[in-house]
Design goal:
single chain; alpha+beta; Beta-Lactamase; Alpha-Beta Plaits; 5-stranded antiparallel β-sheet; 40% helix; disordered N terminus
Amino acid sequence: MASSFALGLPDGVVLDVITRDTGATVAVVNRELQVVYCNDEYARWFETTRDQVVGKTLDDLYGTADRIRFMPFVERVLMGERVEYQRLLHNPYGAEEWRTICLTPARNAAGEIAGFITSALDVHELQVSRAALRAANQRLSSHMDNSPLAVLEMDQALRLLHCSERAIQLMGWESAVPAHGSYLPDLLRTTDQRLGQALERLQQGREAQNRVETCFLRADGTEIHAEWFNSALTDAQGRVTSLMALVQDVSDRVQIARQQEHVANHDALTGLYNRAAFHVQLGRALAAVRHGGGVALLFIDLDGFKRINDEQGHHAGDEVLRIVAQRLAGAVREGDTVARLGGDEFLVMLDRNLTPEEPQRIGQRIIEALNQPMGVGGHTVRVGASIGVAMHPPMKGEIEVLMGAADQAMYAAKRNGKGQLCYAGAPA
């Protein structure tokens, strides 16, 4: 076996003691790329003995093609750099095996780089485990990014750790970079407390999972309604370590529900409340009177509408009704309730800041507004209004009683010459 003193290193016997049981392949190579020392494990990889390896060049051992592959690393170590990299090699038994290879400069007594020390350690199981974990993470990330649900992962303090591409789109963020590490509630423009309360219950360990629907605004002002499916991950001691949220955009569903509710509660022609919805509003107002206040009901019937409908047709009549609805809305106060019962009959409910004089004042404004001429189908038409008023108190706080009394008062106004307002209980 050749001596290693050419590198100023200890005698080979000492090196044997150091490298024998490391489990790694170890060799010392001079600047001419000759092996001047190797341990038994290194020789075993070439299915030979140390005596047969020492003195040979790397070209002899590995071949030109393999030498070209690792020469960039060799050149770096001969410049004084410690180099570490991993390679997939065929072991002496023909199986592929991952090994970590470390090249360290070897200096002589004068401190000059006379060669390098190469050592390689089996990291196959670790590398395979890492590869499997990496593949699993890639699959999980792919599933997250391809999911129709937005995926958000947070730490225990609700700082954002990860978000899917769908989450970035749904929240209206430019990218995940500014969001990463941010406190999630700060990223959502909302005054809705339900999400924060749901996440807090998970943080405190009071729930393992929950569901909540909330609303927030994107930076561009778009209103988003979202359903959140939240869960908490705990450690062996039961402490919450992270939280995950799967978020579904339900804005379309909410919009459809709103439209259905509007259709169910509003007159299709005028957009005012319909009879059923008005009954609900009146019932709530009457129930609230128990705590003080009052309710006034104005029953309005148009004067002269039948003539327009008969002479100019239903299209003209419908346009008159739409104009009437607009003028009624402009004549009442904010918060007052206006409805169309059907035909040319309308209702107004006053239940806020009601004084004895208010029904008369509002009723007169309505009469004056409806007396103004209307342009319909290239013609100027006029209608009027007769109004009956019923009030609780003094009348009973029952829907049918009030509506019946207001209806009768309206007919009294018509008998008195139309275009007038009459109170229920007043002499006809």
